[in-house]
């Protein structure tokens, strides 16, 4: 396969899939750690020298929920898109 | 090595380390009660005293019952200190099943027994200027309520849960059973009650972004 001559939309979607994958991983890690920051706020504050507080964890954990769902949906839907094969 | 796999491995190691540190910082001693804990009351299943999650700001407080005094002060005609014996014997005892709902998502349903805050108010006689009741705990925690919350509701300050004396891990000697409020309003290890005209007072979590009213039917964020 001549990679240099692949249709542009195919490359764009590949790039988008990679970006979504990385973002999903980052958001997932944030959701996990902010969840710990709520339930185990004492330990989290100890480990982060007070930077990650229970309140901050709560806000992030709550507002990251929708981005997580969107990224997860994209992550599962994008591979299904049938592109015009070269 | 495949990058996502490496990242996941690091994540798992970080999580494992987190729980190791957490275990080192906190301990879960066996709770021994002074009476048989009841599990059911008037057909209603109760949670256990072990079902609570320990999430206080400085861990369980150990208060010496012999030297304990509840200080009631502020805008009152008759400020007083009450000993534990006075609180548990000189006031009419009430019991009620109330569910505590924590903002973290867990809840416990307990049979609480104690005195009414309104009965205490009758003793100390708050001034007409008093608008806010501020509770202080042994660990520096505090929270507040409008005075009307106690005048219009039968709010208990509990010294027993599920028929057993409240343990240090759960707030001995007194826990405020703040009905219809989120768990952070249920102050434990109460050492002082102040009647104030300061309607803007914010307690520990309230000054850190949590709602001052703490009503269950509202968001706990400000």
Provide a compact summary of the structure.
Chain A has 86 residues and is mainly alpha-helical. Chain A has helices at 8-39, 41-47, 54-63, 65-77.
Keywords summarizing the entry:
heterodimer, A: 86 residues, 4 helices, B: alpha+beta, Sulfite Oxidase, Chain A, domain 2, five-stranded antiparallel sheet, 19% helix
What does this molecule look like?
The complex is a heterodimer of chains A (86) and B (222). By secondary structure, chain A is mostly helical. Chain A has one domain (12-78). Chain A has helices spanning 8-39, 41-47, 54-63, 65-77. Chain A is elongated, with a radius of gyration of 18 Å. The relative contact order of chain A is 0.19. Chain B is an alpha+beta fold and 222 residues long. Helix content of chain B is 19%, strand content 27%. In chain B, the strands form three sheets. Chain B has a five-stranded mixed beta sheet. In chain B, strands 5, 6, 9, 10 and 11 form a five-stranded antiparallel beta sheet that branches. Chain B has a two-stranded antiparallel sheet with strand order 1-2. In chain B, β9 (156-161) and β10 form a beta hairpin. Chains A and B meet through α1, α2 and α3 of A and α1 of B.
């Amino acid at each position: 396969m001549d990679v240099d001559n692949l249709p542009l939309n195919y490359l764009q979607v590949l790039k988008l899939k990679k970006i979504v994958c990385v973002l999903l991983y980052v958001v997932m890690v944030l959701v996990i750690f902010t969840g710990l920051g709520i339930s185990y706020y004492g330990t989290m504050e100890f480990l982060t020298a007070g930077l990650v507080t229970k309140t901050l964890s709560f806000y992030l954990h709550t507002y990251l929920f929708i981005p997580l769902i969107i990224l997860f949906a994209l992550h599962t839907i994008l591979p299904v898109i049938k592109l015009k094969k070269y | 090595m495949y990058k996502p796999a490496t990242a996941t491995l690091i994540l798992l190691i970080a999580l494992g380390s987190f729980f190791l540190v957490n275990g080192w910082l906190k301990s879960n001693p066996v709770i021994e009660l002074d009476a048989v804990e009841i599990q059911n009351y008037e057909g209603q299943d109760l949670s256990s005293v072990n079902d609570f999650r320990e999430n206080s700001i400085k861990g369980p407080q150990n208060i010496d019952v012999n030297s304990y005094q509840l200080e009631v002060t502020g805008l009152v005609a008759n400020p007083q200190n009450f000993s534990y014996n006075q609180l548990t014997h000189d006031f009419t005892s009430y019991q009620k099943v109330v569910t505590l709902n924590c903002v973290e998502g867990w809840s416990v349903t307990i049979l609480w027994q104690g005195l009414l805050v309104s009965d205490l108010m009758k003793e100390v006689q708050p001034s007409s200027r008093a608008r806010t009741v501020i509770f202080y705990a042994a660990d520096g925690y505090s929270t507040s309520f409008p005075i009307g919350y106690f005048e219009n509701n039968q709010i208990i300050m509990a010294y027993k849960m599920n028929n057993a004396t409240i343990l240090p891990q759960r707030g001995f000697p007194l826990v405020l059973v703040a009905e219809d409020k989120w768990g952070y309003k249920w102050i434990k290890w109460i050492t002082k009650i102040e009647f104030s005209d300061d309607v803007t007072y914010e307690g520990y979590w309230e000054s850190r972004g949590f709602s001052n009213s703490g009503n269950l039917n509202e968001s706990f964020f400000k």
